[in-house]
């Protein structure tokens, strides 16, 4: 009997321990929401009325709101919007996390039932689900990030990732000393091909002879794969790697940092989605040359505001690009970039905005572009 | 004190109750109201017709993947490859569903058969290797899972579509969708698959308990050497067990392909239907009826848990821990069994 009790206690303790581990993130979250509550009070004091009874929610893909990538960015945008409008988390704005592909529809439906006015689907994986649910509930507004969905009550939010990636390619081509750079993709898909095409076009524009390795990990969340691929690329002579691979990219960072720790100096990573400067820090060095930042948060706030003011862009595709800072290159690591690269980035950025350069979005487009150089 | 049969019923029940209690304690320890938490779970699974429909939808593939694991287990084989067999079944069903035009009913049946055959094939390889060369089925099936995942990604991308991430929807004639059921459940994704799942549960019971082949399979499972000695062909039975197990798993994939999603898509990770099937089979004590009940529990947990963060404010991470604890207790049923024996001895 005693042993049974012992085992029971053991399991429970283990559970509590695990729960405690989980709660470090948790603590962060609740701090955040604590901060929100504080400002919400202020908010509701000053402009409580303006929020009215507008409410907005989002469904994450399987990455979750702490993925250090676009789910997190979207949630930050929603939090900022809620704060500005004096909404309360769980009432005025909320998120539903998906554990598997099958959960998207269920989560979207649940939020419809809770009568949210606008529901975001975060990530191209939710496209079929958003389309379906939107057609079933024409009274509710939906918005899809990163893909185009059909339907009069759906706004599609896309980014010109190819433009930002072009600039990443320019930066990489200027930075490399071995004339050899790499690209690590998550899953080989239309979306990630946009990153690849833009990057290759940008690098080749600067230096037509540059060698570019391209490899896909077939996963957005296996850091071990990312590390392995990065290790191969660096060993074969590449010195700058651009990743568009979500969590897999964390492996690219860890490989670069390991190499710096081992005494190599010229290894660089270009991050994606958010400014990944923090990921690249090692001692007093930083391997994150720059990051191709996608301002999902701005887009989410933008569309929420439009919807609240009765100008919801239903049925339209809202595209964010270089011109409205929807995509940009981070400048946090000025030391590594240097004035020369920064001015090159500025120059090409202007050319893209002015329409002098048409950045390719597909592999075929990239081939065509490169052969025309 | 207890017969073996009562044991098989009582032990899983106690595990579930203990798991729920442990989950409640954890929620309490972190300042969340466990009653509200479980109420949210209940509402999220059975609260209205929509959620009920979604729960049935989630239970359907679990029944089949649970049957797959249980069937192999009865023949003494641990089929971890159910996951891969689910994936190839899914792909095969969608392929038949999109590439061919056939009359209604016939089309669904052909698509289901294709899924079962694909799953069986995926089970046949490890079965053959085990029977002829003695290669352990656990290792081969794990490898086959990865082959299935990446192969199906590649087929979807380069053969079934032109570089796209997902296939077209399956033809109306091949769909398992039940429009009238969907209507009364407010557009849940419930489909006729649950009929298939229940039929298969009956089939498994019938094959194992009412046929000579089933007797042989169980004999090989309990003691391959004795079976060999009494003239049974152990190798052949191993292959047959893996083929049938794979067939069940393939059908589980067809439930997703023809019912829930109606398409197949490039996936960066496993579906977990097959892996969860292992827990379902464990909890169901490898019997057909047990698997059905366990699948209902797991489906309920999965769907209900999604509602806990929104309705009761329990954070997602904590919900995961609660679910994991329940599974842990369920899987460690032997502790309860052992405790029971201890008790009954002390009682004397």
Question: In words, what does this structure look like?
Answer:
The complex is a heterodimer of chains A (373) and B (348). Chain A has helices at 2-51, 70-85, 103-113, 127-136, 161-175, 190-206, 223-235, 249-261, 296-308, 334-354, 363-371; strands at residues 56-59, 93-96, 118-122, 141-145, 154-159, 180-185, 211-216, 240-244, 268-273, 281-282, 285-286, 288-294, 317-320, 327-329. By secondary structure, chain A is α/β, with parallel strands linked by helices. Chain A folds into two domains: 53-159, Response regulator (Rossmann fold, 3-Layer(aba) Sandwich), CATH 3.40.50.2300; 161-293 and 327-371, Response regulator (Rossmann fold, 3-Layer(aba) Sandwich), CATH 3.40.50. In chain A, strands 2-1-3-4-5-13 form a six-stranded parallel beta sheet, sandwiched between helices. In chain A, α2 links the parallel β1 and β2 (93-96). The radius of gyration of chain A is 22 Å and the shape is globular. The N and C termini of chain A lie far apart (80 Å). The mean pLDDT of chain B is 90. In chain B, α5 packs antiparallel against α6 (137-160). With 348 residues, chain B is mostly helical. The longest helix of chain B has 28 residues, at 106-133. Chain B has helices at residues 4-29, 34-46, 49-74, 82-99, 106-133, 137-160, 179-184, 193-210, 212-222, 224-229, 234-260, 273-283, 288-305, 307-312, 316-331, 333-347. Chain B has a domain at 63-287. Chain B is built from 16 helices and no strands. In chain B, 77% of the residues lie in helices and 0% in strands. At the A-B interface, α1, α3 and α4 of A face α1, α3, α6, α13 and α14 of B.
């Amino acid at each position: 009997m005693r042993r049974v009790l012992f085992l029971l206690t053991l399991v429970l303790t283990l559970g509590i321990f695990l729960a405690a581990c989980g709660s470090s993130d948790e603590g962060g979250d609740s701090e955040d929401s604590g901060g929100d509550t504080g400002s919400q009070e202020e908010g509701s004091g000053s402009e409580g009325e303006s929020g009215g009874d507008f409410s907005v929610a989002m469904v994450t893909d399987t990455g979750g709101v702490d993925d250090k990538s676009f789910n997190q960015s979207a949630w930050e945008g929603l939090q900022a919007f809620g704060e500005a409008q004096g909404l309360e988390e769980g009432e005025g704005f909320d998120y539903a996390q998906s554990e598997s592909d099958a959960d998207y529809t269920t989560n979207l439906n649940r939020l419809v039932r809770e009568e949210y006015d606008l529901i975001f689907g975060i990530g191209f994986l939710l496209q079929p689900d958003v389309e379906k649910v939107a057609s079933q509930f024409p009274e509710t507004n939906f918005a899809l990030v990163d893909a185009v969905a059909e339907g009069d009550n759906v706004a599609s939010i896309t980014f010109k990732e190819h433009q930002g990636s072009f600039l990443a390619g320019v930066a990489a081509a200027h930075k490399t000393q071995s004339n050899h750079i790499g690209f690590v993709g998550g899953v080989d898909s239309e979306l990630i091909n946009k990153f690849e095409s833009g990057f290759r076009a940008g690098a080749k524009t600067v230096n037509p002879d540059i060698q570019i390795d391209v490899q896909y990990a077939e996963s957005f969340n296996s850091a071990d794969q990312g590390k392995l691929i990065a290790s191969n690329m660096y060993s074969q002579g590449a010195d700058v790697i651009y990743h568009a691979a979500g969590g897999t990219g964390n492996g690219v960072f860890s490989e670069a940092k390991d190499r710096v720790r081992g005494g190599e100096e010229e290894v660089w990573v270009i991050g994606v989605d958010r400014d990944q400067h923090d990921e690249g820090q090692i001692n007093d060095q930083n391997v994150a040359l720059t990051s191709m930042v996608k301002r999902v948060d701005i887009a989410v706030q933008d569309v929420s505001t439009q919807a609240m003011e009765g100008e919801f862009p239903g049925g339209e595709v809202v595209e964010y690009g270089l011109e409205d800072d929807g995509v940009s290159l981070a400048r946090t690591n000025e030391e590594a970039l240097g004035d020369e690269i920064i001015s090159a980035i500025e120059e090409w950025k202007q050319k893209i905005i002015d329409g002098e350069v048409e950045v390719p979005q597909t592999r075929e487009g990239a081939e065509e572009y490169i052969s025309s150089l | 004190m207890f017969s073996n049969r009562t044991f098989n019923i009582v032990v899983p029940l106690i595990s579930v109750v203990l798991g729920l209690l442990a989950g409640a304690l954890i929620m309490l320890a972190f300042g969340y109201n466990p009653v509200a938490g479980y109420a949210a779970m209940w509402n999220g699974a059975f609260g209205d017709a929509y959620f009920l429909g979604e729960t049935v939808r989630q239970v359907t593939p679990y029944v089949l993947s649970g049957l797959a694991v249980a069937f192999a287990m009865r023949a003494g084989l641990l089929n971890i490859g159910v996951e891969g067999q689910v994936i190839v079944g899914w792909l095969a069903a969608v392929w038949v569903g999109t590439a061919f035009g056939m009359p209604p009913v016939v089309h669904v049946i052909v698509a289901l058969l294709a899924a079962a055959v694909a799953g069986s094939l995926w089970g046949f390889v490890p079965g053959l290797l085990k029977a002829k060369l003695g290669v352990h089925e656990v290792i081969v099936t794990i490898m086959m899972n990865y082959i299935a995942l990446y192969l199906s990604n590649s087929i979807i991308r380069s053969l079934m579509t032109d570089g796209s991430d997902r296939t077209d929807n399956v033809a109306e004639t091949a769909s398992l969708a039940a429009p009238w059921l969907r209507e009364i459940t407010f557009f849940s994704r419930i489909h006729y698959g649950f009929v298939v799942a229940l039929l298969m549960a009956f089939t498994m019971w019938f094959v194992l308990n009412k046929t000579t082949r089933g007797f042989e399979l169980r004999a090989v499972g309990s003691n391959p050497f004795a079976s060999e000695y009494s003239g049974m062909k152990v190798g052949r039975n191993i292959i047959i067990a893996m083929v049938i197990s794979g067939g069940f798993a393939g059908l589980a994939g067809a439930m997703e392909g023809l019912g829930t999603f109606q398409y197949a898509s490039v996936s960066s990770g496993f579906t977990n239907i097959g892996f969860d099937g292992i827990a379902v089979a464990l909890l169901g004590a490898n019997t057909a009826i047990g698997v059905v009940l366990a699948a209902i529990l797991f489906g309920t947990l999965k769907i209900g848990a999604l509602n806990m963060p929104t309705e009761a404010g329990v954070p997602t991470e904590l919900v995961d821990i609660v679910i994991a604890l329940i599974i842990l207790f369920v899987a460690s049923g032997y502790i309860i069994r052992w405790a029971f024996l201890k008790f009954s001895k002390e009682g004397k």
